[in-house]
Design goal:
It is a single chain. The chain has four helices and no strands. The protein is elongated. The protein is about 65% helix and about 0% strand. By secondary structure, the protein is mainly alpha-helical. The chain starts with 5 loop residues before the first helix and ends with a helix.
Length: about 90
């Protein structure tokens, strides 16, 4: 069963209603209806990709990227400036 703990279902209801409010969708607080919807969701088994490395520290990330963050920042700044000028 997906929602064995009441606090888990409360979290799902709160998150769903917040998102519904943002998009102007009617909200519901019917615990049974939402528990049924949540139970119907099929979550696939997670299988990590081979060869993916996750850096533990900022130093590892910086040494692997060799300064590519700087280029990303420049591209973002240029795009923002162009959008401001065009608008």
């Amino acid at each position: 069963m997906l929602c064995e703990q009441p606090v888990h279902l409360d979290f799902i209801i709160a998150a769903a209603n917040l998102r519904a409010d943002i998009y102007g969708i009617p909200q519901t607080r019917d615990h049974r209806a939402i528990a049924g919807m949540a139970a119907a969701v099929e979550v696939p088994v997670f299988t990590p990709k081979a060869g993916v490395r996750i850096d533990i520290t900022e130093t590892e990330a910086q040494s692997r990227n060799n300064g590519s963050y700087g280029l990303c920042v420049v591209v973002v700044v240029v795009v923002v400036v162009v959008v401001i000028i065009v608008a």
